[in-house]
Amino acid sequence: MTDSSRPPLAVFDLDNTLADTAHRQRFLERTPRDWDGFFAAAPQDPPLAEGLALVLESAEECEVVYLTGRPERCRQDTLDWLAAQGLPEGRVHMRRDNDRRPARRTKLETLRRLARTREIRVLVDDDELVCEDAERAGFTVVRARWTAPSAALKSAQEREGRT
Q: What is the pLDDT of residues 78-128, one digit of tens each?
């Protein structure tokens, strides 16, 4: 049963929703993919103005939660980046370091768990498969279409369960 005494949740993805990963795509375009390099470069991600504006607007009525496919080992860099952007504090749900399931499965699992006790007002994500599955499950979705899609990142999210 959802707790109506608490504000609804606005759930935001990070990569290519709030953080521009274009500068680190090169790490995924080589064989084998350089995951350590890809995640090590995340603290230098430029913020995406459209995403940040949506977080700040949502925070007026909702509790903000961050839901990312980044592995748990990136938590401190992620928290530092969010703080540096002046974004509201909120729980950050990350992938376990050894979890290689597709992002659409891991994220939907977390959304369903959150929805057991809280209303989820919106999910904002750039991954089309995540968005489609979330909509099919009854969630309201805003597609973050303010960056150019990356084939390498899409493959990583879906086939390799890495981000």
A: 999 999 999 999 999 999 888 888 888 899 999 999 999 999 999 999 999
* DSSP-based three-state secondary structure for 150: coil
In angstroms, the CA 11 to CA 54 distance is 11
Q: What is the 3-state secondary structure (H, E, C) of 5-28?
A: CCCCEEEECCECCCECCHHHHHHC
122 Cβ partners below 8 Å, 6+ apart?
Answer: 10, 11, 58, 62, 139, 140, 141, 142
Token pair of 151 as six digits: 């084939």
- pTM (predicted TM-score): 0.88
Residue linked to tokens 């509790």 = 63
User: In this structure, is the dihedral angle defined by the CA atoms of residues 90, 94, 96 and 97, taken in order, positive or negative?
Assistant: negative
